[in-house]
Amino acid sequence: MYLKKLQERRAKAQEEMEGLLNKVKTEEREFTDEEKTQFEELEKTIQSILDTIEKLKKGRNLTEEKESETEKEDGEDKEQKEAEQRAINEERAFENYIRGRVEERADVNLTTTDNGAVIPSSIADRIIAKVVDICPIYQLAERYNVNGTLTIPLYDEETQSITCAYATEFTDLESTSGKFTNISLTGYLAGALTKVSKSLINNSKFDIVTFVVNKMAESISRFIEKELLIGTDGKITGLRGVTQKVVTNSQTVITSDNLIDTQDEVPDMHQAKAIWIMNRTTRNNIRKLKDSEGNYLLNRDLSSKWGYTLLGKDVYTSDNMSKIGAGNTVAYYGDMSGLAVKLGEDINIEVLREKFATQHAVGIVGYVELDSKVQDTQKISKLVMAGAPEETVEDGE
Q1: Calpha distance 59→38 (Å, rounded)
Q2: CA distances from 193 to 97, 190, 218 (A)
Q3: Residue 177, domain member (yes or no)
Q4: Per-residue H/E/C for 277-298
């Protein structure tokens, strides 16, 4: 209502101004001092009204925006609370399913099908999150959570690269370019089985869901780490696809020069996030090496991720890595984001009640779809022992 009154006052002031102008035009004369003062006062009044109207409109817009933001926040809070409650209900339903309980409330039971039950996605998400936490190689790799085949472009400058050179007027530039290829990540099915004692299941105070999530994640992460580091013929390639390598002169001895050369295979632009990966026995062997000034190359460092640094970079050890031996790949170095890993969005989980009944246990099996290949050959290098072809001895022993 107030805004309408202001607009009416402005219109009235404009009419009075027009009346003064028409009077002067009709009489073909100039403004008198009194008319001039009156005209200026009307101008000030109109400008003041316009300023007030503009501020009122801004205030109204701010109020509407605030109300909209409040409604949005309330909606987000509501969605978050609903998601949290849904996760609680799904966890309870999963626990009930394992324990063989059926409750009266339908929202705390799993939806059963002819093939068992539909396992809630929140449980699968917890398993994947746990895998990321406990498997550093998978955590540091470039992860793609998609189903089906994933094609990633790969830029190859080994044979020809884009170059910049001096140019001369009226002379054509020579065209140079790298080569684009691609890698395809499909999916290889793998299963992880966890058996749970019925004595634990019957213990109502035991957190059966967390136990299953942790055991399933540990099993999956062990498999993933092995495949990413070692790979399997005809299936997942993993770091086996690394092309930058340094070969030792000996089948049994690693020198400081070998390690320095391996590190320098990776361009400086990719050094910031680089790490070492090796077997514990290899790390122990390297601990005895010194540089030309008598300083140990590998140092105990409590501030590092895994307690040791080698040539300034963190050292991660895995029993899946090959030990020192003829032809074995004994260390990887580089930024592990150069490794692409595709894990299907869905984890298929089944509860097997009867299969392990004679063992007084319940089996829980989870199936994952996985594939991995090197997507940036410059980011990672490997150290290979001299001797037999490495592919014939890559057994993790």
Answers
A1: 32
A2: 17, 10, 11
A3: no
A4: EECHHHHHHHCCCECCCCCECE
Residues 63 and 206 in one domain: no
The boundaries of the domain holding residue 339 are 123-152+188-397
pLDDT score of 397: 39
Q: How far apart are CA 384 and CA 324, in angstroms?
A: 9
Residue 372 phi/psi, 5° resolution?
-155, 140
* pTM, to two decimals: 0.67
- The half-sphere exposure of 30 on its side-chain side, counting CA atoms within 13 A, is 3
Give per-residue pLDDT as tens, 168-223.
Answer: 666 665 555 555 577 788 888 888 888 888 888 888 778 888 888 888 888 888 89
Give the chain's length.
397
Buried b (16+ CB within 10 A) or exposed e, 241-272: bbebbbebeeeeebeeebbebbbebbeeebbe
Reported in sequence order, the residue ranges of 145-200 that DSSP labels E, i.e. its strands, are 150-156, 179-185, 188-197
pLDDT in tens, 29-74: 888 888 888 888 888 888 888 888 787 777 777 777 777 777 666 6
* Residue 114 sits in the same domain as residue 223: no
Side-chain half-sphere exposure of 265, counting CA atoms within 13 A:
23
Question: What are 99's two structure tokens?
Answer: 């324990």
